[in-house]
Design a protein that fits this description.
Distance between the termini: 48 Å
Helix content: 25-40%
Length: 745
């Protein structure tokens, strides 16, 4: 089987650096600095500084960045015309995010000046100067042309109004109803969920007009809402005949007894631990002692590359999908189920092909050696996380004795690995996840905290170790590969984080390292502000992404990292497997055809985010449907967002976000102070900050708009005054420092 070997050019590196420079300069609170200081703020290593200079100079020559007085770097000023992406507000106005960022930022478009633009459209706007306020020039705009429509198809609910049939689109991308005719052609009825295509776009006088393309079913029904999300996010559905044919052929050719030089470890004790409803078992674990008494961890990963040929229809479809999508109650697989749930899946009692990473540790879990092999395994037992946790606690019913012994050894090694990784700076955020309870019809009836028992951490530690081992090997072989990178947070983000946590009585050093962030997270454990602080830390980081850029993984404190352990459900892992296969066959990674790693990385990062967004939106829909019958009930929440029109709060039990409008906060004039991360009552002095707890009452639910409207269940002003008085009366020993104190672990 041919394997593709990937190389990464200097031009790729330059493009990534340029993206990071522009993203940093776009931040609203960016303060101009010199080029050298900018490189430092971006975490550019000394050996990469020349590449940074080259990328910066390309941006300067193209006019995308400017150097002003005192050699300070900034974005160019606002020009007379802007091309960018429009986003509409329900109140008639909107904003344009320029395709080429400028020093002003987004351009405000007043009501009546939006033309026929809709959210996501690429537009041209004429810029109008509005005069100065507080020494700064203010601008607004008027859209003069729509260059490209973002969407012409929408999913929404059909209803009969006085003026005729209309479709109210789901979500917030298109806010206005769409007028439709001839609903009988598709057999549509009121309260049906439909797909509608725009024929004419809205004007100041007339609604958009469209035609119904498909009836998805009755709005509110689980199957209908699933179809709605699939259509809305353009998620893949059935595999075509070529893919199905290749999958059947690959599965049919599998012969467990045909080892092809693989290591036969079918006699070893090997287990899988997964959620109760899992079917695609990617990974299995073994653990033994060697002749010197050292631990030898075996991480055995489904060898998908033996079934999916590079360049085949199945491979192309896998790349296009990027990953499997896990929705509440439904999975959209990256590969046909005959593979993903069949011959690739490491099912108990079945011989399966695997790629095995063996890592040898001393008694302190320090790595002594690593090796890799193609293998044939046979899982001894399939456990759920809950079963594994019970077995570790002594409840061993239905668990084989040799598996119980293995679990005990796994726990010991995992705790030692975790301790070592934490010492090295690995960060762990305490952001509990919510697990929905659905009835047989797919409706949410309750929710509870997701299981976070220690077996989850065991598997996580072993997977991280294996991913890091493979990445270190490929880096040592000097071959470009698809890394999983997590950039170090920039100085501006850390400054904003320090300002926010100071409001809770914690200090961060000026340039916090991982140790200081660990101290902060330790310090807030069990505190009322714990969720808010952990959320603020998460938001101060960039999102992890796929890229060939040698950048490391900040949160894991890993110099080289990739995804290797889930090739059934992630295309990035399959790419890495093919490189490992070539190494195992020839001992090196020679030069062959070169695909565009940067573009592939962008694509699979997008499909990953798309899957997360789709899961989040369907979850929100199901929860909102349930809460619509709980009007007037109270929810325990945390403040997660502040605007000049209200406060966003997140429900701790259900994980859904609601809005408290400014007028419902109490009898005061409320001022949004973005730099201080708070809203303040001008007369009362009451302050509402990000991360603080707030009990609210449900007022209304708008499922199509994905909106939960709530009001405070307690007197915000009175409670704020009492809280301030209590803080003042507290015996002060100075602020609690989140850096420099000894950690207890």
């Amino acid at each position: 089987m041919g394997a593709l070997i990937y190389f990464f050019s200097e031009s790729d590196m330059a493009e990534i650096l340029k993206e990071r420079i522009i993203r940093h300069l776009k931040q609203a609170d960016y303060t101009p600095v010199r080029p050298g200081q900018l490189a430092k703020a971006l975490g550019v290593r000394s050996e990469d500084y020349e590449q940074f200079k080259g990328a910066f100079e390309e941006l300067r020559r193209a006019g995308r960045v400017v150097i002003g007085g005192r050699n300070l770097v900034g974005l160019p000023p606002m020009s007379g015309q802007v091309i960018g992406t429009f986003r509409a507000s329900a109140r008639g106005f909107g904003f344009i995010t320029p395709l080429e960022p400028n020093s002003h930022g987004d351009l405000f478009i007043p009501p009546g000046k939006t033309s026929e633009a809709m959210t996501g459209d690429t537009v041209v706007a004429k810029v109008v100067r509005q005069g100065k306020r507080s020494g700064q020039m203010r601008f607004s705009g008027r859209i003069i042309e729509v260059l490209e429509r973002a969407e012409n198809r929408f999913v929404g609910t059909l209803s009969k109004e006085v003026e005729g049939w209309i479709v109210q689109p789901d979500g917030s991308r298109f806010l206005e109803p769409i007028s439709v005719d001839d609903v009988g052609a598709k057999g549509a009825r009121a309260k049906d969920k439909v797909v509608v295509e725009i024929l004419t776009y809205p004007t100041e006088k007339y609604l958009a007009r469209g035609v119904i393309l498909e009836v998805l079913g009755r709005a509110g029904q689980y199957a209908t809402e699933i179809r709605s999300i699939v259509c809305q996010y353009h998620l893949p559905e059935e595999f075509d005949a070529d893919c199905q044919g290749e999958a059947r052929e690959a599965a049919g050719q599998f012969r467990a007894e045909k080892t092809d030089g693989r290591e036969d470890i079918t006699g070893k004790v090997v287990i899988t631990i997964d959620p109760p409803d899992a079917k695609d078992f990617d990974d299995a674990i073994s653990l033994e002692r060697d002749a010197d008494g050292n631990w030898v961890l075996g991480v055995h990963i489904a060898d998908v590359s033996s079934f999916v040929v590079s360049g085949s229809a199945l491979d192309s479809e896998g790349r296009e999908r990027g990953n499997s999508v896990y929705l509440p109650g439904k999975t959209i697989p990256m590969l046909p189920e005959i593979l993903s749930n069949g011959v690739c899946s490491l099912q108990a009692g079945q011989k399966r092909y695997a790629k095995s990473a063996y890592i040898t540790y001393d008694r302190d879990a320090k790595i002594l050696s690593r090796r890799f092999a193609n293998s044939v395994i046979c899982s001894t037992q399939r456990l759920t996380y809950q079963q594994a946790d019970k077995a570790l606690g002594g409840r061993v019913k239905d668990v084989k004795p040799e598996v119980v012994r293995l679990l005990k050894d796994m726990e010991s090694l995992s705790r030692a690995i975790e301790e070592r990784r934490v010492r090295n700076g690995m960060l762990h955020l305490d952001l509990p996840e919510t697990e929905l309870v659905l009835d047989k019809s797919g409706r949410v009836v309750d929710a509870h905290p997701a299981d976070d028992s220690y077996p989850h951490t065991m598997i996580e530690m072993f997977m991280v170790e294996a991913n890091e081992a493979v990445a270190s090997l490929l880096d040592r072989l000097n071959v470009a590969f698809m890394r999983r990178i997590h950039p170090e947070p920039d100085a501006m983000s850390m400054k904003n984080l320090a300002q926010l946590v100071r409001a809770f009585g914690y200090n961060l050093p000026r340039n916090p390292d991982r140790s200081a962030i660990q101290d902060l997270l330790d310090a807030v454990k069990g505190a009322e502000c714990s969720f808010g602080v952990n959320l603020a830390v998460l938001r101060s980081f960039e999102k992890a992404q796929y890229s060939p850029l040698d950048m490391g993984h900040f949160a894991l404190a890993s110099t080289h990292y990739c995804h290797f352990t889930s090739p059934i459900r992630r295309y990035a892992d399959l790419m890495v497997h093919r490189l490992l296969e070539r190494y195992l066959r020839s001992g090196s990674c020679g030069r062959v055809a070169e695909p565009d790693l940067v573009e592939t990385g962008r694509h699979i990062t997008f499909t990953e985010q798309r899957a997360e967004d789709a899961e989040r939106e369907l979850t929100a829909v199901l929860i909102l449907q349930m809460l619509s019958s709980h009007i007037g009930e109270e929810l325990d929440c945390v403040v997660t967002g502040l605007t000049n029109f209200g406060v966003f709060v997140q429900c701790l039990k259900y994980g859904i976000e609601g809005l408290v409008r400014t007028g419902d906060l109490g009898a005061d004039e409320w001022k949004f102070e973005p730099k201080a991360h708070c809203i303040t009552g001008i007369r009362s002095g009451c302050t509402i900050r990000l991360g603080q707890a707030m009990k609210v009452r449900i007022v209304s639910v708008n499922v199509p708009a994905r909106q939960l409207n709530v009001i405070p269940a307690e007197d915000v002003i009175g409670k704020g005054k009492r809280s301030a008085a209590a803080k003042k009366a507290k015996v002060s020993g100075g602020r609690r420092k989140a850096g420099g104190r000894k950690r207890k672990r």
